Amino acid sequence: MALLFSIHPDNPQPRLIEQAAEMIRDGGLVALPTDSAYALCGQTGDAKLLDRIRRIRGVDERHHFTLLCRDLSEIANYARVDNAQYRLLKAATPGSYTFILEGTKELPRRVLHPKRKTIGLRVPDHPVVLALLAELDEPLLSSTLILPGDEFPLTDAEEIRERLDHQIDLVIDAGRCGAEMTTVINLADGPPELVRAGKGPLAPFGF
Are 152 and 10 in contact (CB under 8 A)? Predict the structure, then answer.
């Protein structure tokens, strides 16, 4: 049975954050709330974890995973970012945006898009996620928690635990989480291209 941690949304309890981080280091798959929707998260280089997420989501190897990063400097370690892209990222982070960028050699090939060698990156604006990232001292691999056949992501911790009880290891409950996904912007192929309109406002990018 998946564990359930109730964590304060603004002042996360250090003990629970430490326990969650230890589970992730041991290969655990965690459902956690973000500033947009719930996400499935785990350690970046874990091949078995990738397969678990793909099975739950019902996606193939062409699915774009997203790295949750603490800040822009961490993004720059894992993606190729020029000056113009950096200015766009700086204007929109932290926040509910996912940026598609070309990955660097710091990332395992298995997490990149197989043909384009790209990955999603974002800096979330959620105290629980940021506390967990600080404790781990590395990004989290993530994918929006929307199940096959569902129109929207799951929003309730108890429902997530009930529906995914034996498929994940931990559910983090930090109060109400929205169902609106991030705005996705492709920066890997030239000028910014809107891939998906979501919670992040479009105005800063002129769409």
Answer: no
Beta-strand pair 66-68/118-122: parallel
146 contacts 153 by C-beta, under 8 angstroms: yes
In the block, which residue shows the tokens 């204007």?
A: 91
Phi, then psi, of 136 in degrees rounded to 5: -75, -30
Cα(169)–Cα(31) distance, integer angstroms: 8
Residues 116-146: tens digit of each pLDDT? 899 999 999 999 999 999 999 999 999 999 9
Domains of the chain, first to last: 3-205 (3.90.870.10)
74's CB contacts (< 8 A; 6+ apart) are: 123, 139
Q: Which residues pair with 30 in a beta bridge?
A: 41, 170
d(CA 166, CA 171): 12
pLDDT for 40-86, tens place per residue? 999 998 899 999 999 999 998 888 899 999 999 899 889 999 999 99
Query: What are the structure tokens assigned to 169, written together?
Result: 């290891």
What is the Cα–Cα distance from 184 to 133, expressed in whole angstroms? 21
* Paired tokens of 41: 């998260």
